[in-house]
Amino acid sequence: ALARLGADVIGIDPSQPALKAARCHAETEGLCLKYSVGRGEQIPLANESVDVVVCVDVLEHVEDLEKVIQEVRRVLKPNGLLCFDTINRTWLASLVIVSLGEKVLRLLPCGTHDPEKFIKPRELSKLLAASGLKMGPLVGLGPVGLNRKLDFTFGKHPSLSIMYMGHADVEIRRIS
If we measure between CA atoms, which residue out of 76, 109, 145 comes closest to residue 84? Predict the structure, then answer.
């Protein structure tokens, strides 16, 4: 979607097969995107080299969330922006995402999510602040309907108790 709007997009993933599928999709759609193998804990980009980092369905899967946030801050330009969504560490999120989504409906393979890696908003805010990023307002995220393929579509949800999305800005620290 960002490439269609004219953005220069670099996709990063630790999985070669995932990147191969992404390249094929981009080619089919006539999009010019760059892809690189990498992990959030060691992003293969130069310091202060990007305007925006987008982490969709990422943060709840990484090995070291603190290191990922530090890496995001490292690659963001001074007025940079992090956009994210993630899963809240609540009993309801575990029930919906893991028990219902993976085990009952089988929307994802069992074991895709580890509820211990789900992130409470206040924990994320604290990690972001420690790395020089200021979290903005959060919005609940959840299923809002089905598309023609009978896949769930997601959008704003009245509660943060399952999933949430938001952004964080690079904090400008003034020296007095």
Answer: 76
